[in-house]
Amino acid sequence: MLKVENLSVNYGLIEAVRDVTFEVEEGEIVTLIGANGAGKTTILHTISGLLRPAQGKISFMGQEISTTLPQKIVSQGLSQVPEGRHVFPGLTVLENLEMGAYLKKNRAENQANLKEVFDRFPRLEERKNQDAATLSGGEQQMLAMGRALMSSPKLLLLDEPSMGLAPQLIQEIFNIIVDIQKRGTTVLLIEQNAKQALTIADRGYVLETGKIILSGTGNELLQSEEVQKAYLGG
Q1: Nearest 5 degrees, angle CA 192-CA 151-CA 117?
Q2: How many CA atoms lie within 13 Å of 93's alpha carbon, on the beta-carbon side?
Q3: Would you state the pLDDT for residue 234?
Q4: Exposed/middle/buried for 210, CB within 10 Å: 0-12, 13-18, 19+?
Q5: Cα separations in angstroms, 148 against 8, 97, 190, 204
Q6: Where are the alpha helices (DSSP H) in 83-159?
Q7: Low-confidence ranges of the chain (pLDDT < 50)
């Protein structure tokens, strides 16, 4: 579904990502783990069209999207839930969700997607007329995920969905990610909580200073001595 080949991304003279290659198959949860500054978010922003690669190629559903505009990428079925959630303050929960369907003109499909989001996140329906900025951190994360799902994505990019959440909410968010996959949406996950991410992932890649240094199934990486020492407190 997604193929990233020899990707390099620069911020001015700084090379943030170097010669990164990986792929995501349809139906998988794939995770990228690594320390802060390893290049994880940069990779997601480049896939989403928010940054341009210095070199390399990104293909989605067999089509190259390396220079495609972000809104076109969304319309092709790829949506991102950004780090820090970034809900729209001053808009209600319902209005935030409707923004996620901005490019979709099929009213019946949008209503069906809204019902599915409310079924998955009942708290959002309870607070649908509330200003999104007044929600708790966990509720805002649910709103950001629901907003992305309103565009009916084939591939969902999740950037640090558990950041800043209470422990009991973290488990709830990971359960939701697994449910999203089971309902047919492929997931590319970036997460500081490496153990949780690898526990639910089919496959994973370990990034260090902009390069992939390890890859394997989620379980293989969980058992890796190198991963345990660096990321799991082993």
Answers
A1: 75
A2: 23
A3: 59
A4: buried
A5: 26, 8, 16, 23
A6: 93-100, 107-120, 122-126, 137-149
A7: none
Q: Which two tokens stand for residue 215?
A: 């890859």
Q: Please give the pLDDT value at position 37.
A: 87
Structure confidence at residue 104 (pLDDT): 82
DSSP 186-216: EEEEE-S-HHHHHHH-SEEEEEETTEEEEEE
Query: Which residue bears the tokens 């500081």?
Result: 192
- Residues contacting 187, CB < 8 A, separation 6+: 28, 29, 30, 155, 156, 158, 177, 180, 181
Tokens standing for residue 201: 């992932």
The model's pTM is 0.91
30 contacts 198 by C-beta, under 8 angstroms = no
8-state DSSP, 135: S
Q: How far apart are CA 204 and CA 197, in angstroms?
A: 9
Question: How many Å from the N-terminal Cα to the C-terminal Cα in the chain?
Answer: 34
CA 192 to chain centre: 13
Of the candidates 75, 21, 30, the one whose C-alpha atom is nearest the C-alpha of residue 213 is: 21
Give the integer Cα–Cα distance in Å for 18 and 28: 24
Angstrom distance (rounded) from CA 80 to CA 70: 10
Which DSSP state fits 185? -
Q: Residue 16, CB half-sphere, CA atoms under 13 Å: how many?
A: 18
CA–CA distance, 176 with 183 (Å, rounded to integer): 10
